[in-house]
Design a protein that fits this description.
By secondary structure, the protein is mainly α. It has a domain of 95 residues: Serine Threonine Protein Phosphatase 5, Tetratricopeptide repeat (Alpha Horseshoe). It has seven helices and no strands. The longest helix is centred in the N-terminal third of the chain and has 23 residues. The chain starts with a helix and ends with a helix.
Amino acid sequence: MSFLTGAIRTAAAGTSVRASMLGRYSAPVALRQVRGYASHHEDESFEAFTSRYTSFFDAVDDLFELQRGLNNCFSYDLVPAPEVVEAALRASRRVNDYSTAVRVFEGIKEKVENQGQYEKYLDALKPIREELGINLKEELYSA
């Protein structure tokens, strides 16, 4: 009889401990989905964007900064102006990275809507390509 009484007391004690633990932690509240926007930032005009990235690429002096700047520049929902691309091409030649200069044109080709726009960029950037000796991927790997 004493064995049975001890077992009941132990079971009851365990249950009350679990109940008190559950009482400490409330059920999780339904999570709200809240999207925070950076409303304190002003909209940047295309001219300000062009000015900012042109000055950025003019000041670049190592490959990491150049690639970081290109990644940031091409991540926007717009195609950079030819002035920005020219500054990026000069920076890539300044840090002696020819492959990045070629890839800038690949980035432009992916960003524009159609082949006609890409041709206009190539025409606008032809003098800088000739000055710096930059070939396109199509010219390097023509079959």
